[in-house]
Amino acid sequence: MVPPAWVALGKETFASPIYQVVLHGKDEYRPEDIDYFVGFRPPAGFLKSLPKLKLVISFGAGVDGFLADPQFPRQIPLVRFTEPALAYEMAQHSVMHALIIQRQQRFFDKAQAEGVWRQIMMPRATSATRMGILGMGEIGGKIAERFAMLGFPTSGWSKTRKNIPNVKSYAGDGELNTFLGQSDFLTVVLPQTPQTINMMDRDFFAKLPKGASIINVARGSVIVDADLIAALDSGQLGHAVLDVFRTEPLPADHPFWKHPKITITPHIAGLTSPHMALAYVENCVRRNEAGEKLSDIVDIDRGY
Amino acid sequence: MVPPAWVALGKETFASPIYQVVLHGKDEYRPEDIDYFVGFRPPAGFLKSLPKLKLVISFGAGVDGFLADPQFPRQIPLVRFTEPALAYEMAQHSVMHALIIQRQQRFFDKAQAEGVWRQIMMPRATSATRMGILGMGEIGGKIAERFAMLGFPTSGWSKTRKNIPNVKSYAGDGELNTFLGQSDFLTVVLPQTPQTINMMDRDFFAKLPKGASIINVARGSVIVDADLIAALDSGQLGHAVLDVFRTEPLPADHPFWKHPKITITPHIAGLTSPHMALAYVENCVRRNEAGEKLSDIVDIDRGY
Question: Is the Cβ pair A248, B99 closer than 8 Å?
Answer without folding.
Answer: no
